[in-house]
Amino acid sequence: MHDHLNDLSRALIIFIGYGISSSPTRNSIKIIEEFGPAEGERLLYSIKIVFEEVGRINVDWSKNTLESAGKIARAHVQEIHPDLSEEALQAIEWKFTFDWK
């Protein structure tokens, strides 16, 4: 049995390019290469859901900095997906803050 949540953590890191790229990426091809077509598509759908959740976060920019907003986004995702790895959460926070620069 595959550990989907562990795979989701790995997939998020790969998709975003965390630790590899100088800026966040959206590398669907790498996901398919790493996990195969069927599991890759399932993971890409899960990644899409995570990013939709992040996109619904309302940040009060009058009270938050980019750094604190990144922490809010990370905490929100961690609450919904408590089994994501520390590195996956860091990748999400990195992408969130990069997107808002």
Task: Walk me through this protein's architecture.
The protein is mainly alpha-helical and 101 residues long. The protein has one domain. The protein is 68% helix and 0% strand. It is built from 5 helices and no strands. The longest helix has 19 residues. It starts with a helix and ends with a helix. The model has no long low-confidence stretch (mean pLDDT 94).
Task: Compile the SSE list and pairings.
Blueprint (H helix, E strand, L loop, with lengths): L3 H13 L11 H8 L1 H19 L10 H15 L5 H14 L2
Helix pairs in contact: 1-2, 1-3, 1-5, 2-3, 4-5
Concise overview:
This protein has 101 residues and is an all-alpha fold. It has one domain (4-99).
List keywords for this structure.
5 helices, mainly alpha, 101 residues
Helix content: 55-70%
Largest sheet: none
Could you tell me the number of beta strands?
0
SSE string: HHHHH
- Poorly predicted spans: none
Helix and strand content put the structural class at: mainly alpha
The portion of residues forming beta strands comes to under 5%
Radius of gyration from the CA trace?
A: 13 Å
What gap, in angstroms, lies between the N and C termini?
40 Å
Number of helices: 5
- Silhouette: globular
The overall pLDDT, averaged over residues, is 94
* Total domain count: 1
